[in-house]
Amino acid sequence: MANNQKLKDNYQESIKPFQPKPSYLANCLKAFLVGGIICTLGQAIQNFYIAFFDFNEKNAGNPTVATLILISALLTGFGIYDRIGQFAGAGSAVPVTGFANSMTSAALEHRSEGIVLGVATNMFKLAGNVIVFGTVSAYVVGIIRYLFKTYLL
User: Following CA atoms 31, 33, 36, 42 in sequence, which dihedral angle do they give, to the nearest 10 degrees?
Assistant: First the structure.
C-alpha cells in the first residue's frame, strides 16, 4: 500500500515539468471579459423590454432571464457556447446561461436514447444538484429572515 503511494508520488513529480503552466492572469481576464459581456447583453435585453414593451424595471427581469436562457440554449445547440466556455472558463458560468448550457448539453448528449429515457431522464443530471441546493438554501434563508423579522424587529 505504501509502495503504491510512493509510486504515485514519484509519477506526479516526474510529470510535473511536462505539464503546461496555466496563465492565471490571462484566464481571469478572459473570464472577466466574457462574463461582463454576457451581463451587459442581459442589461441591454432588459432595457429593450423596458423601452419597447412597457415593462418596468422590476417586471422586465423575467422575460430577460427567459431570453438569456433561450439564447444560451440555442448557442449550446449550435456548438458555439462550448467554444465560449473553452475560451472563457468560469466567465461563461454566469448563473442563468451556465444553467441553461448544462441542461441543454445534457439533453443533446442523450437525445439518441429517446425523449423519455434519454432527454427527460438525463436533462437534470448536471442541473439537479443546483436546483436542490438552491431550493434548500432559499428555504433556510427564508426561515432565518422570518425569525429575524418576527423576533428581532
Answer: -100
Q: Measured between alpha carbons, how far is 67 from 75 in angstroms, rounded to an integer?
A: 12
Let me know how long the chain is: 153
Query: 87 is written with which cell numbers?
Result: 475560451
Digit-coded pLDDT (tens) for 3-25:
788 888 888 889 888 888 889 99
Q: Which amino acid is at 32?
A: F
The x, y and z cell numbers of residue 123, run together, are 436533462
Q: Which of these, 122, 129, 87, lies nearest to 105 by C-alpha position? A: 122
Q: What is the largest CA-CA distance in the chain?
A: 70
Q: Give the DSSP letter of residue 123.
A: T
H/E run at residue 134: helix 128-151
Q: Which amino acid is at 9?
A: D
